[in-house]
Design a protein that fits this description.
about 55% helix; about 80 residues; 4 helices; two-stranded antiparallel sheet
């Protein structure tokens, strides 16, 4: 995943995380989910990373909108900054 792709994924992740909450999430909870997401990506475990993404999440990358289903296709990965 490119850095830009990682940022877009992060936005989708946070948007899906907050949309499910009845009250604002605690910062520590958000950090834990983001760390788990990037830990899975860095380890090459795309399936584990995608389990953290809401079923109705969308990604905006390079001006294109992708769904969770299209994002789940195999890609090369790279670490975040």
């Amino acid at each position: 995943m490119s850095v830009a792709g990682g940022c877009c994924g992060l936005v989708a992740l946070l948007a899906s995380f907050t949309a499910c909450a009845s009250s604002p999430p605690r910062e520590a909870d958000v950090v834990a989910v983001v760390d788990a997401f990037y830990g899975a990506i860095d380890a090459g475990h795309a399936d584990a990373a995608m389990r953290l993404i809401a079923p109705d999440a969308v990604f905006i990358e390079s001006g294109k909108i992708e769904t969770r289903a299209t994002k789940a296709t195999p890609r090369s990965t790279s670490t975040r900054n």
